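Summary for the steering committee. One of the milestones for this cycle was to obtain a three-dimensional model of the protein with 3-phosphoglyceric acid bound, which we needed before selecting residues for the alanine scan. The sequence and ligand used are listed below.
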Amino acid sequence: MPDVIATYAFVPERGTAPEEAARWIAEEETTGTWTGISTRVEYVRRLDGEVLEVTPRGNGYVTRIRYPAEIFEPGNVSQYLSVVAGNLFGLKKLESVRLLDAEFPESLIPFHGPRFGIRGIRGLIGTLDRPHVGTIIKPKVGLSPKDTAAVASQAALGGVDLIKDDETLTDQAFCPLRERVSLVMEALEEVKEETGRQVLYAVNITTRADRIVARAEEAVNLGATMVMIDVITAGFTALQALAESPKIRVPIHVHRTMHAAMTRSPVHGIAMRLFARLVRWLGGDQLHTGTVSGKMSHDRDEVTGDNRILTGPCLGLKRVFPVASGGLQPGNVHRELEVLGNDIVLQAGGGIHGHPDGTAAGARAMRQAVDAWMEGISLEEYAREHHELERALKKWGVIHG
Ligand code: 3PG
C-alpha cells in the first residue's frame, strides 16, 4: 500500500547529526520514543517511520520521511495532523523544524471535496473567466445590522461579486447574525432587482464545534448564499461537518485567520501547503492563500504553489477558488493577476471602503481595474477615462512587481 511522505526543513540541535535529528522525527511520530522500549515488539516494527533522505539546504537540511499508511485512520484528518505535524515541533534535538508538505495516498483521501468549486461559483455569479472581486465589510466589527446592510448594498451596486463578514464578526450583540443576514439579503435582493446581478454574501458562522452546522443551517435558512468558516480556529473537521451537511447547499468560504502563527516563519512551523490540501479534500469552495503585493508578509513561490494545490488535478475533486486578500486596492490588481492568473477572487476591505468617494465608488474602481486587465489596458491609461479608478490610484498609487 502506498504510504505518506512528509517533507521537513530543519536545523539540528548543535552537536546532533542531521541524520539523527531526522530519525528522532520518524521515531517520535511512529513507534519509537526517546529511549528503547521493551514493548516495541517485532510485529509493531512494520509501522516504523523511515527517513528516506536528508539533504543540505541553506543553513539547515531537508528530510523526507515515510510514514506507513496503516498508521493513519482513513478520513480522520485530526489524526493525520497529529502524525505529520505532531510532537516533533517541540523536540530538543531540533533547533527548528518546518513541515513543508505531506503527500497522502488515494486510500487516505476518501473525501468528496468542494460541492461548487471554481466552476460552480462562476456559474452562480455568471462569469466565464474574469477574476472575481470581493469585499469584506469594514470596520470588521462594530456596525449595526442596518448599517452593515447599507454598506453591502453600496458595494453590490458598485459591482463586487462577493461580500463577506470579517473573521472576528460572528454573532455578537452589536450585530446579531439573524438580523444581519436578513437585512443584508434584503438589500442584495433589491440590488439584484435593480441590476440583474447576483452578489453572494458569505456569513461567518464560526462557532463551537457542536453548534457550527446548526448555525450555518440557520444562516442558509435566512437566505445566506455562502457561509464562511475560520478554519484554523474552528478546526478542519468543522469544515468537514459543514461540507457534509446535506442542508448546507451553498459554497463555503474558508478564512485562515491565525495561520501565520504556524506558516510565517521560514524555519519553524507548518507551511500553508498542507492546509490547502486539507481544505480542498474537506470541501472548502474558496480559500484565502494570500496576496503577492498586499499588506501581509508573503512568499510569492509559496502562494503560487499553494494555489496550484487548490486548482491542479487532485483525484477528480473540484477546483477551489483561491482568494487573495489583505491590503489590496485597485493599484495592486494587475500585479496580483500577473502572478496569480484569472481564477482568483481579489478581495479588498480598506481598498474599497477607504475610497475617497465611498464604498460604491471603491467597488467600481476595483471592477474597473479588473476590466482594464481583461481588456489588456494599463491601470494608468484606463484611469484616464474612469473617474473612480483615477481617484483610487491618486490615493494609493499603482503597485508594480
Ligand atoms: C481579510 O479578511 O483578508 C482582511 O480583513 C482584509 O482586509 P483589508 O482588505 O482591509 O486589508
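Key point for the committee: The pocket of 3-phosphoglyceric acid is lined by residues 136, 138, 140, 166-167, 295, 325-328, 347-351 (CB under 6 Å).
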